[in-house]
Amino acid sequence: MCGRFSQSYTWEQIHAFSRPLTKALPAGQDNLPPRYNIAPTTNVHMIVPVDGGRELRIARWWLIPSWWKKGIKEVPSTFNARVETVDSNPMFRDAFKRTRCIVPASGFFEWTGPKADRTPHYFSAADGGLLGIAGLWAIWINPEGEAVTSCTMVVRDADEWTARYHDRMPSFLKPEDFDAWLTGSAGKEILRKTPPRLQEWIVSKRVNKTGDGDDDPSTVEPIAAA
User: Is the residue at 92 inside a domain?
Assistant: First the structure.
């Protein structure tokens, strides 16, 4: 699964990657603050379709369906949606039909080794570019009447290369498939296409602690294996 990732890019990079965004950088903001160790339930960027193009929005990374009747703490684990059941699982099927998104990522983490002493690995695109992860989003109204926007990432079985580290991986989208995914014209077959070529290295065990190094670039820098 994918339980930690990073979003580190300039406004120009994300604008070009989304092909393009419809809104310019907000007034008074020089750039997008980088985040290197993002954990579930925190806010992330997502790209959604709007009239005339696409828009970068913020969402809580842990999907809450619009129909949810219980409290936010009672939502089951929904930060990942398995491709095998994304169109049938009640927690995801409405969003799969109606509200899809792309979660831009500069990389993601997986762990190997025994549970008591796991080794964190960082994965990014081999060409240094951004990765587009297929996602879903929803707007839920909490008991206080406030709107909560949330999202999830779709995950699939790992390809041969990634399977050396983990049996699952994010479902990556190619830029030429962005429209088909966002408009809903593509089905699940688009989620199992050959993923981009990745690179991997071991990083500091600081990332094992949620929230540690969220804005520290050394979090994703390679270190020598112990």
Answer: yes
